[in-house]
Design a protein that fits this description.
Layout: H1 7-15, E1 26-27, H2 45-53, H3 56-66, H4 77-89, E2 93-114, E3 120-121, E4 146-147, E5 152-160, H5 166-174, E6 183-187, H6 193-202, E7 207-211, E8 243-244, E9 280-283, H7 285-293, H8 302-305, E10 327-348, E11 352-362, H9 375-392, E12 400-407, H10 410-413, H11 415-431, E13 432-438, E14 446-451, H12 456-463, H13 475-483, E15 488-489, H14 497-500, E16 506-512, H15 529-536, H16 541-559, H17 568-587, H18 595-621, H19 624-636, E17 658-660, E18 668-670, H20 672-679, H21 683-704
Parallel strand pairs: 4-8, 5-6, 6-7, 7-9, 11-12, 11-13, 13-16
Antiparallel strand pairs: 1-15, 2-3, 2-10, 5-10, 10-12, 14-16, 17-18
Helix pairs in contact: 2-9, 3-9, 4-9, 9-16, 12-13, 12-16, 17-18, 18-19, 18-21, 20-21
Length: 706
Amino acid sequence: MLGNIRIQLLSAALVTLCQACVHERHFDASGLVKRQTSALEPLSPEEQILSDAISNVTISEWSYYYTHGYHVAGTNMTMADWTADKFRESGWNASVVSYNVYLNYPVNKSLSLSYSNGSTFQPLLAEAVLAADDTTSYPNRVPTFHGYSATGSAEAEYVYVGRGQQDDFARLIELGVPLEGKIAVSRYGGPFRGLKVKNAQANGMIGAILFTDTGDDGAVTEANGYAAYPDGPARNPTSVQRGSVQYLSIYPGDPTTPGYPSRKDSPRADTRSVMPGIPSIPISYVDAIPILAALDGHGIDGEVVNRTRWVGALNVSYSTGPAPGTTISMSNLMENVYTDIWDSIGIINGTNPDETIVIGNHRDAWIVGGAADPNSGTAIIVELSRAFGKLLAQGWRPRRNIVLCSWDAEEYGLVGSTEWVEEYIPWLTETAVSYLNIDVGASGAWPYIAATPELHEISVDVMKKVPWMDTNRTMYDAWLEYAGGSVGVLGSGSDYTAFVHRGIGSIDMGANGGDTDPVYHYHSNYDSYHWMSNFGDPEFLAHQYMSKYLTLLAYNLATVEIVPLNVTNWATQMEIYYKNLLTTISSKSATLDTSQLRSALDEFASRTQEIEVLEQQAVTSKDPNLVSLVNHKKRDFQRGFVSQGGLPDREFYQNLIFAPGIDTGYAATTFPGITEAVVAGNLTLAAEYVTRTANAILIAANIVKT
């Protein structure tokens, strides 16, 4: 598992897509780092108790429990209660919080391909039952479907649209490919799947088919001689990626209650701005091949289209089509409901009630399994609760409150976490120091982190305290080799989103597979306990050491007298974002006055030097009032970045320093209000957001100043 990763994989991980972690990640530093072995940093006695308490055996037990019961959002209150009970058993105060939200569930679907000669092809639209993998045969196994997809039917010729980005559609229009009234066929990868459907609909298309391409599987494919799961590490040909098609870059959470928590008596908003109006269906690559092959020789050849990742690894030409007389007939029937979801919440009260560390993972999955997404992370936080229980049993209390959250309905659109943040935002604004998120805690053995800048230093330092995978290397060594020493920029796609966009610093973390590791079957029935225990993390060691890491990071943030956040790194990172902005402006041959932003960045950098001096005074004097002042400035300054209202046409996203791209949903865009307006050619709007962004930075600087 810890073999060398190819240069091309590392480059991809640092610049664009790391397949096993699913979401595109934005790194601002890059470069290959030589394999090394570092000395392990010593632990304090309390840290040693925490670390020693974490067992791969018990984590495997938690994983088995979560991956052997149906737990699609809003369907398993028993699992929520069980999670809260586990927190209580370890000494946490625990409860289950419910929200009444809008979801939908699959009823039935159909898809057929009709050739011009009158023959037909009927895709399976289901994943194969595997004798070796017990949960794939459960009577209540989850059908393949898209959450929040529209009920409807369509019959028409179809067009292959690449990854379904706006630029892909622009290229098709440039090439004269007809789109109006056609059905879109798109490969996964790149933007959030809902934006693929959104873009198809915006171009007059009447349905969407999404498929997984083995071109995203690195070196481990059947074409390269590897056996398919369950006989080997390659992708099972029938695997299908389920998932939500909500327009994540517009706003997450319950689409009927934007900006306020969902209760049974809550007013309900129209959802058309954030949900598709055309049907969509996900399919496997084995089902996609005949559909794509029928387009060979029709429209524009894939190589001629010349778009990023347009051509995949299947034995087809990836031509655009349409093929005259060759049509798709599709139907999709969904049941729309308002139903309860359940967040399990555990609390340890600290000695400083006005400072809080929040830790979270979502519990719901698209399948009975979910061994990697999300229940590797769920098993990890249950084990974290058990480890802290060892300290609680000795009478220990943290300096800061620790809140442990097991979210429901993340998969539909970060629903459980967003509703909770919307309910508790006054208290969170007053007390929240950091939010620590773990989603796919382990789908392989290579760790990554993405975080707001103040968390970079402490997050990397804690890695040096964690051994890795029972080797003589540290987690830091493995991360350095895999990520090249780069900490990602947070976009969206997991439960940190609502926190970041209400001015609360956050980190997302996990461990992925590499280019030569077993393929992770994302949102598929094959993301199962059997896959995990035989291929993904057979001894649950990545789970164990990620749990040690998260636990030690939470401990340090919750107990160190002066909260270990590096405000100065914000000035460093924003300089990088500013240079990227200037590059974007130049690439568009635009003229935009950014002097206000430049001045605000200089002011912020100056003020961060002041808080460093103040922190040294607090350390030297041991004055508790001075310590509290420093801590509160570190806690509060990011509230400034969300003080100027939201981004254009997506008011939920209030952080003006970074946000998910309007056409990515996952990957971050820095200085998004300015950058996206420049890219769109709207320099008037860009100038407005230069002012807004500068004002946000100045408010943050004013909070930091002494």
